[in-house]
Amino acid sequence: MVHAVFARLCTFAGLTALPLRTTSQIPNSIVFTRLQSTSAGGTRSAPRIVSLGLTAAAFAGGWYTGGVAADLYGGKDKPVASTAAGPPTTDPSSGYPFTPLTPPTAARVTDLLNQNIWSVPVTSLDAGGVTRYDGSQLASNGACEDSFTHCQFPSPLQAGKKWMAWGVFDGHLGAQTAEALSRHLIPYVHHFLKKATSAEVLDDAVVHRAIKHAFMELDDVFIGHAQEIVDSDHSWAEKVLRLTPGTNGSCALLSMYDPTERKLHVACTGDSRAVLGRQIQTPEGKGKWETVPLSIDQGGSNEAEAERVRALHPGEPDVVKDGRVLGLATARTFGDGHWKWPAELQSFMRSRFISDTMRRVDPETTYKTPPYITAEPEVTTTVLQPGQPAFMIIASDGLWDHMSSEQAVELVGRWVDWRAKGKPAPPPVDDGFPKQFDYTPYYSTGWKVAEDAMTVQDENAAVHLTRNALGGARHDVISGLLSFKPPYSRYARDDITVQVVFFNWKE
């Protein structure tokens, strides 16, 4: 029986989500309709659905944001609530003796990896070389804390033109901050870019300042009004909801493409990562993929970032310890007010609002000179050359925990070659996994991509990267990692959200 899978469709202001449609012909999958504007007469145009692999959707001209916690583990349908007909009946003999669950088969692994995917062909002549993009999300936490967006929107710089955008938002302590970013970050950036163009001669430096201003302004909305909310006459429930985006936290990675100028603007707050694979010719005349970083990880393990934080907090030698800023794994995030609020407010919030999660930021011992973290992004601009094949990978750190940027570019390059060769079946690989039980090589994302375990077998480039991040051709590894359930799964693998955008590439 097909498992019920639910998805949250988040809408921007002025847009209306069409009803979610599912199909019983595709097991364990979700089919999304695109979000479309409602006309003045209140009618909606018909949805366009593009099927590719197990799940795909085309959102031509629409916005799409998401964060899905899918049923990763199968099993029978959950019991339904009792009705007037009386309680449900069960057969006791069906549950005795106890039967352990069976691990995911190769086919089931593929189903799980493809539960929440999208693949969007781009055919517009105004797309500046964008030909297709793929995406996928695989949850580890019981409710996935990652969110994402992909869309096109009116150019803030040229009337009648459009930009394209792809974003990944890696939440922590809950998903609410990441979900808010998926809905509101692009509108804020668009607003401040338009404001900048009306006041200054536009260059990359102006664009970068406007993007940074937008990031900081939205973060101030999340955390800057906490005292007002606490002191307001709002109901207790409304206060909880208004405070949540500032008490949860999220990294943000936003890539925006201006097709007219062929400029790729990437803004990064946190430890998600963007990388460009660019095809170049070797002296022998052969094509190879060059790895070009588009962002820099901003975790405490980045020594330059750690020194920046230490310089802002002299006399606090333990402000960065074991690669963490007062216990937080990254030095830049949205939300996370417990690392940003004034000490008096932080102490009050720590004692009155989810205090157990804030043990590492005790105002009496470690919390002396806030704020300790910031939402200000690092912004880069890269010009893409007309006709030069390239692809961009953006992903949450759940992918980068297991592979380097160079390995990710190599893997997508292999995927491109595989399709050019007619998608041959992968050769059989000896699993080589020891039969004795030892979880330690995989604890805290200890598994790393191995050259001899790389495989190419997925229609979706983002799924291809996720599969290889979790074991690749070694079925017992990937089946085992997918067998862990929350809350223990987070110690083996994080939520993984990936998008791959192709430029000047045709099959």
From TrEMBL:
GO terms for cellular component: mitochondrion. PROSITE patterns: PPM_2. Residues 1-17 form the signal peptide. Pfam families: PP2C. GO terms for molecular function: [pyruvate dehydrogenase (acetyl-transferring)]-phosphatase activity. Residues 81-100 are annotated as: Disordered. It comes from the Eukaryota. The keyword 4Fe-4S does not apply. Gene3D superfamilies: PPM-type phosphatase domain. Residues 130-503 form the PPM-type phosphatase domain. Keywords: Signal. The keyword Protein biosynthesis does not apply. This is PP2C-like protein.
